[in-house]
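Progress note, project year one: complex with heme C.
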Amino acid sequence: MIENLKGILLITAATGAAAMGVSGCSSTDAVVPENAGSEAGCPASGCPTQGDAGQTQDDASQAQGDAGQAQDDAGPTPVDVNTPPTGKAEDIEAWIAKGDYKKGDWKCDPAPHDAAATGMSPHGKVLICSNKLAQGYTSGTFAVGAATVKELYAANGTTRNGTAIMVKVAAGAAPNSWHWYDRVGANTVANGRSGGNVDTVCVGCHSKAGTAGNTGGDFIFSIIK
Ligand code: HEC
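Model obtained:
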């Protein structure tokens, strides 16, 4: 039943039909953008599970070319409800607004601080949160589903400038094993696994994580435990 439903949703998404917005279907954790409007409807056959909703969002985004440079294959089925979505920027922003990354098993810096490796990080003051799978990292590559959210602040440490997120969406050590998201002000600087600013801005610097005295590994500098 679930499999059939997923097939229907994927087909619908692939045809580029109005953004599925199936996130509006999940009962308790609905991510309904302000302007969801008709998107919030459920397919007649009922609502998908949370996991299916996440995956379908990603596909829907891809079908619409919303992310521009994104070359996402189907994203992973979220490992738990605290795995950020990897589709349309508005869905990611709605997830950020809910603040789930500061609850449950997530661990966060206590307050915004100067970015580590000052002079190398372009991120201003930051407050970083790691989900459970990210916290479990020891060496090598992160587990699929690992995620970090970084709140970006102005130098005063209180004015919020934006958010960056990395979600491990495939096994392996390639840069496109991560979904890269970054919004600064009104600008979506990056949203995808490769191409555009992901390749020209994010990857080069983040590839230094875990090398030459830098903490972390697999493109991630900091893990909050
Ligand atoms: C010039 C280097 C540089 C560039 C370019 C850069 N970052 Fe970072 N980024 C850092 C450093 C250094 C940290 C660690 C900050 C800290 O721990 O205080 C970081 C932290 C992060 C984190 C938190 C997880 C971690 O690695 O600690 C995310 C998410 C992130 N960056 C996303 C991005 C995205 C998306 C882009 C591209 C739009 C980007 N960054 C571009 C240097 C960079």
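Residues 1-74 have pLDDT under 50 and may be disordered.
The radius of gyration is 17 Å.
No further modelling is planned for this target in the current period.
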